[in-house]
Specification:
It is built from 15 helices and 7 strands. The protein is an alpha/beta fold. The protein is globular and about 65 Å long.
């Protein structure tokens, strides 16, 4: 977010790039003095007790150890990045920054800096989703549930979501397919016992819960999970399993490289192509919009929007 000036945000932006949350929040936010009128919009300080979390916040899981680490940092340096809120009832509802709000309470702060915006319910969910994705704070199930809510309740299309979160339509579709898995497997993903690649391999498998337990117990890789699912299919045992098709790989590549392409693609939400040879190789990322390019640049440089 670019609400607070910094050396990175003060330089001239490239046309169409670096918009992210600023495109949803507005280009400029006037700073308000502490104690300004409650109807004022902009940056100001509010009591932590005046803020309440949004019940449909995409992020459901908050790690206690990570919250303690953030609280320790806040006690030392203060809360540097404002929390985005909207007027709601007699107080304010958190749009983006619930984790910082929780950590601020642990740090025993009485007031926190906030950005106040008038937002609809759909805009609120969009911003919360984008903020969490940009910070890589959502697990695959939380992200998929947020996409489904935006599609089913607010009539977004996958194409529109692709533009909002700067990820490919295929990435969004693959994530949403995870919601077809049994609840116990979805919980494994939320808890971190399974990664998205593992869960995706289990879609459509016979008795996926038993296979998931085997994957966890044996600490199988994604490629080993795919092979396990193939062997478990009726008529795919013994010699038939040996002849089962392997993951597609680029000419001169291998199944390991194909699995790595899929893994990186899951993380970035973009198509990834790896070409490897005896003396090295190349890693190519395919993007369709300048926003997607900017997202990759920020990930590589460590910048935050």
């Amino acid at each position: 977010m670019t609400d607070t000036p910094s050396p990175a945000s003060s330089r001239k932006q490239r046309p169409g790039l670096g918009r992210g949350l600023s495109a949803l929040l507005g280009e400029s936010l006037p700073e308000e003095p502490v104690g300004g009128g409650e109807s004022s919009l902009g940056i100001r300080s509010l009591p932590v007790t005046a803020l309440a979390p949004h019940p449909e916040q995409p992020r459901r899981h908050f790690d206690d150890d990570a919250l303690d680490e953030l609280a320790a940092s806040i006690r030392t340096r203060g809360l540097i990045q404002p929390i985005v809120v909207r007027p709601f009832g007699k107080g304010y509802q958190i749009v983006a920054g619930e984790r910082r709000w929780r950590a601020a309470q642990r740090a025993r702060l009485h007031e926190v800096p906030v950005v106040i915006r008038e937002l609809t319910e759909a805009e609120t969910l969009e911003i919360a989703l984008v903020e969490n994705i940009q910070r890589q704070d959502l697990n695959a199930i939380e992200e998929a549930e947020a996409y489904r809510k935006l599609i089913e309740e607010f009539q977004h299309t996958q194409e529109a979501l692709s533009r909002i979160v700067h990820k490919s339509r295929s990435h969004i579709a693959n994530l949403m397919r995870l919601l077809d898995l049994p609840p116990v497997i979805q919980k494994y993903v939320v808890d971190g016992a399974l990664k998205m690649g593992h869960a995706r391999a289990l879609i459509g498998a016979d008795d996926p819960e038993a296979l998931a337990r085997k994957v966890i117990d044996q600490d199988l890789s994604v490629r080993e999970t795919e092979a396990l699912v193939r062997r478990a299919k009726p008529g795919e045992s013994g010699e038939n399993a040996a002849r089962a098709p392997r993951p597609a790989a680029a000419p001169g590549g291998s199944a390991d490289i194909a699995a790595l392409e899929n893994q990186l693609g899951d993380v970035l939400g973009l198509k990834v192509k790896i070409t490897h040879g005896p003396k090295g190789g190349t890693l190519a990322l395919s993007y369709s919009t300048l926003d997607q390019l900017d997202m990759v640049c920020q990930r590589l440089s460590g910048e935050r929007i």
